[in-house]
Amino acid sequence: MFEPRSSFVDAGDVRLHYLEWDPTIHKSSAGEASPAAYEDTTDDIPVVLLHGLAATADTWRLLAEHLYQRHPLLAFDLRGHGLSAQPETGYDLTTVAEDIISGMATLGLGQVAVVGHGWGARVALVLAARHSALVSHLVLVDCPHVEPRHWPGMTRERFIREKATPELYPSRAAYLQALRTEMPFAWTPEIERIVLTYIRDLPDGTVQERLRSELQCAIRESLWEDRALSYYSKLSCPVLLVPAADRPLPGEEPPERLEHADEFAAAKGQMAAQVARAIQHCSVLWMPETAHDIQLQRPQVLGEAILKFLEE
């Protein structure tokens, strides 16, 4: 497996960590990329990768194996995540998107393709709508198109405070067991290595999610207030939607409740079909019987689809 370079970039008022896959770039002896690092190094457009909530840039390691030989890749730890800074404020989608724009400018990046997963897909959506000239292609991997205010029975307070998993775990083994339940697919040592970057070890032997609970609440509050549906008509670049759902049947009604995995999958399929109609240049890769973390479960299928999309 090709090992990416780990580095940091000052993006406005926040310092972001990122991973970089590009064997063609000459690195400086100090280990920092120069602002001109991406000038005239390749004809292939760089790809910026944005992870989901509580994950890290490492979540893209398996997918990167299928992309980096054709495109330079940069995967950021978003504000508050991984090894990036954790300021007390700035967790709305617009600020997080502008962090990436600032980081791109410092690194000398011009137009890029952007791939986002989950919450990172919502960040990517905002970024592409606000900076259309900088985004050549947009890939939204299992993006939560369904705004939580429209979930049956959901309230603002419940959504902001509700967490599927605890912040503290008694051990690494307990954490991994919880994720195996949440990600019901075959595990490998590579996947385990990736998800362990989502936590930090504490002196007493317990482990803690790197994203602090109060920051996750701030992010969830921003998601509640955001109006995702207003962005799709503003997209001018080609868009690939990759929902972990099956294509809805003609005339199929959306589920009346959103409590179980199959109901969420059906709702995701319905919303993906709806937003696809609102986007000027849009295609959909339906991924039924797939968990939310498509980049971990089916990286080769996703990688091949992204390469084909970028070359069309």
UniProtKB/TrEMBL annotation:
Signal peptide: none annotated. Residues 46-159 form the AB hydrolase-1 domain. Transmembrane segments: none annotated. It comes from the Bacteria. PANTHER family: HYDROLASE, PUTATIVE (AFU_ORTHOLOGUE AFUA_2G14860)-RELATED (PTHR43798:SF33), MONOACYLGLYCEROL LIPASE (PTHR43798). This is AB hydrolase-1 domain-containing protein. It comes from Dictyobacter formicarum.
